[in-house]
Amino acid sequence: MFTAKYRGYDIDLYRSTGKRWIAGVCGGIAENMQWSATGVRIGTILLFMFTGAFAVLVYIAAVFLLSSRPYESKTHKENTHEGNFASHAYSEQKPNLKQKMFDYGASASNRIEEIRARMAKVDKRIRAMEEHVTSRKFHFDREMRRS
Questions:
Q1: Within the chain, what is the greatest distance between any pair of CA atoms?
Q2: How does pLDDT run across 48-79, given as a tens digit for each residue?
Q3: How far apart are CA 86 and CA 64, in angstroms?
Q4: What CA–CA distances, in Å, run from 133 to 68, 123, 137?
Q5: pLDDT tens-digit profile of 14-43?
Q6: Phi, psi torsion values for 120, nearest 5 degrees
Q7: What pLDDT, on the 0 to 100 scale, is given for residue 122?
Q8: Non-local CB neighbours of 21 within 8 Å, separated by 6+ positions
Q9: Dist. CA 61–CA 69, nearest whole Å
Q10: CA distances for 110 relative to 99, 102, 113, angstroms
Q11: Quick one: which of 100, 97, 101 has its CA closest to 35?
Q12: CA 61, 62, 67, 68 torsion: positive or negative?
């Protein structure tokens, strides 16, 4: 039930372990969205000022809904000989929330080409089926099954 929580909801969303003041929610959101943690904290304070208790309830819910970021050992980074590049490459493999929100997908011309290729493949399969059904072998086999 809560397995998505421990996988970061497949968008690498965790509570921060390094940029935390209270529970790491603002730091985790900042790491995920690649924003400044201070900016997210200021936004949270402004949200509290305008909405009151709603912001506190959302923050408390986020504490329970987000798990802490899994620990990455230093030996793993030393073994890769890439340090920060390894973590950067990992973040490119799994898109964060900002990348998922603003990903508009392939262009229309690419989609049309993909649809055209798929339709050509379907047409080829239909022609092969028509050839089989109209062949003499098919009619002969059908007559043999009747008797």
A1: 86
A2: 899 888 888 888 888 888 877 776 533 334 44
A3: 29
A4: 61, 15, 9
A5: 777 777 778 888 888 888 888 888 888 899
A6: -65, -40
A7: 96
A8: 27, 41
A9: 17
A10: 20, 18, 5
A11: 97
A12: negative
The token pair at 81 is: 């000989």
Distances (CA, A) of 115 to 45, 104, 108, 112, 118: 48, 18, 10, 5, 5
pLDDT digits (tens, 9 = 90+) for 80-98: 444 444 444 444 456 666 6
**What tokens does 129 get?**
């089926």
How far is the C-alpha of 147 from the C-alpha of 143, rounded, in Å?
A: 7
Contact 37, 16 (CB under 8 A): yes
Distance CA 83, CA 11 (A): 22
Distance CA 83, CA 61 (A): 34
Q: Is the per-residue pLDDT at 104 higher than 90?
A: no
Nearest to 35, CA basis, from 50, 16, 54, 53: 16
The Cα–Cα gap between 35 and 2 comes to 27
Give Cα separations from 135 to 40, 132, 138, 144, 147 (angstroms).
Answer: 70, 5, 5, 15, 19
